[in-house]
Amino acid sequence: MPRIVGFSGSLRKGSFNASLLRAAAAACPEGAVVDIVSIRDFPLYDADLEAEGMPAAVAALKDQIAQADGVLIVTPEYNQSIPGVLKNTIDWLSRPATDLRRVFGDKAVAVMGATPGRGGTFLSQAVLLQSVLALGARPWLGARVHVSGAKDVFGADGALKDETVSRLVKRFMGEYVEFLTKRRSLERIPREE
Ligand SMILES: Cc1cc2nc3c(=O)[nH]c(=O)nc-3n(C[C@H](O)[C@H](O)[C@H](O)COP(=O)(O)O)c2cc1C
To answer: How many whole angstroms separate alpha carbon 57 and alpha carbon 177?
Structure first.
């Protein structure tokens, strides 16, 4: 069954996006797994730092993504775009370009987002998809999850309490995992040359 690496573009303890990611992991169909990772230990991208060697947190996440079937990124919206910490993560993961194929080649990347505002993170998700394409990955565009009014959607403990959003998240994860599972079985069929 598929393995998915999931991370949130917010470092905030009470992050709605981290809560949404946890809800997505919990809604994953049986057998599939979302491994939730943090991007907190990524340093600011600096080519001089890169020249000294890949930081351990970056190397570890690259290897984990390379081994996974899919990647789920849950992003806030900052100033109609993605947060700097998330862009910074993507920039590190894209280095060196010669490693892109190993890490992201054809990987199906899914995106969700939550905001306490009304905009549902439509803009940040669109911006994020642009970077996903730059990585050589394949945006998975099955179901969509744009959470608005997040303060009423999650409880004080971070649990997803809105039934409509719960159903959406469950459907999203069901369809995403179904796609990854089909892809896995296709990869086992030898290709005709
Ligand atoms: C610098 C900054 C810019 C923001 N810009 C937007 C925005 O353009 N659209 C939006 O819906 N929310 C915006 N917000 C509000 C965030 O959606 C809100 O802080 C949200 O809780 C962040 O996600 P998190 O709960 O996962 O940390 C902004 C917040 C910050 C700190």
So the answer is: 26
Is the predicted pLDDT of residue 68 greater than 90, yes or no?
Answer: yes
Q: Is the peptide bond before 96 cis (omega within 30 degrees of 0)?
A: yes
Cα end-to-end span (Å), the chain: 28
Q: Which domains does the chain have, with CATH numbers?
A: 3-187 (3.40.50.360)
Name the residue of 74, 79, 148, 152 to mutate for ligand 1: max ligand atoms within 8 A of Cβ. 79
CA of 118 to the centre of ligand 1 (A): 11
Ligand 1 cavity residues, CB under 6 Å: 10, 12, 15-17, 76-80, 115-117, 119
pLDDT of residue 191: 59
Which amino acid type is present at position 105?
G
CA distance 105 to 108: 9
Fill in the amino acid letter for 149: G
CA of 91 to the centre of ligand 1 (A): 21
Instruction: Give, for ligand 1, the residue of 20, 77, 79 to mutate: max count of ligand atoms closer than 8 Å to Cβ.
Output: 77
Question: DSSP of 119-180, one letter per residue?
Answer: STTHHHHHHHHHHHHHTT-EE--SS--EE-SHHHHB-TTS-B--HHHHHHHHHHHHHHHHHH
Read off the pTM: 0.96
